[in-house]
Amino acid sequence: MNTEETLEHQWKAKRMLKNAFLQERISHAYLFEGPSGTGKLACAKAFAKTLFCLQPIAGEACNQCLECRKFDNENQPDLRYIVPEGQSIKIDQIRQLQRDLSYRTTASSRMIYIIEQADKMTVQAANSLLKFLEEPVSPVVAILITSNSQAILPTIRSRTMSVPFVPLSPDLMLEQLVERGASPTLARAAVQLSSGLDGAWAILEKNGFAEIRTLVIQLGKESITTYTAAMLTASQKLFKGEYADQIDLVMQLLLLWFKDMTQFQAGRQENLVFIDQLEWISAHAFSRSFAGWVSCMEHVLEADKRIKANVTPQLSIEQLLVKLQEG
């Protein structure tokens, strides 16, 4: 799946921006918000290109005029990108942006600035930008991009037009991850653990992800068949082993393991996350009722909640394994 297909999935955002353009109701500031990997930056660039275009066609850039060619060649003098320097966007960056905007090519020319990871602005930078948004300079257009809109100052959010980007479907994410070279088997799990492509890719690149998945498969099987074996596995590889700091990921995957049992019972084999374990799942999925597997999922969620409440992980998981054995 290419960038164009990713944006096609964001038809609501595209329609909102196209209608604003066609109705000549361009806002002075937009907030593109949604999970990472949902095409926010690509959409921001496409919208900016349309705003610069001299001969737009049906609300989209013509891709032929001088301004479009400047944009494609990254030679558009009236476009600015702001990205974090290190861990944050600093006040000096916003001040420099304001200086640049004050010296735009002509008083009537449109200038556009795109702030990536806008949630990474320091308090000082955010307050400086806020003053600029409160007194917009026409025709300047701001596009703020974030995967964490709650980290944006409420006063900034109130002065921007929200353009929501929805998570990609698991099937689309899986397709693109495989195109990037990810293992299809591992990618099926990653897409269930993240709402965006970037997040899923980060999970796949996590050290030991494949081994943690294998550990969960072992725990999932042993937890309903051999309690002592499950306890030994947890003790050796989880409590004191190399994956002791990955318990959160283990719990998330274990939840998906039991969910697969319900998927198989419901006849939705194509939705299995642990598709490589189909033979084992088919042999054991009906060893418990549908409600029984749902109870297993609830036990996992309860244990995860206890761990997050600072209950000792070892104690929480030992209690979980007892409950899973009992059914």
From TrEMBL:
The keyword Oxidoreductase does not apply. Signal peptide: none annotated. Its EC number is 2.7.7.7. GO terms for molecular function: DNA-directed DNA polymerase activity. It comes from the Bacteria. The gene is holB. PANTHER family: DNA POLYMERASE III SUBUNIT DELTA, REPLICATION FACTOR C / DNA POLYMERASE III GAMMA-TAU SUBUNIT. This is DNA polymerase III subunit delta. Keywords: Nucleotidyltransferase, Transferase. It comes from Paenibacillus septentrionalis. Coiled coil: none annotated. The keyword Nucleotidyltransferase applies.
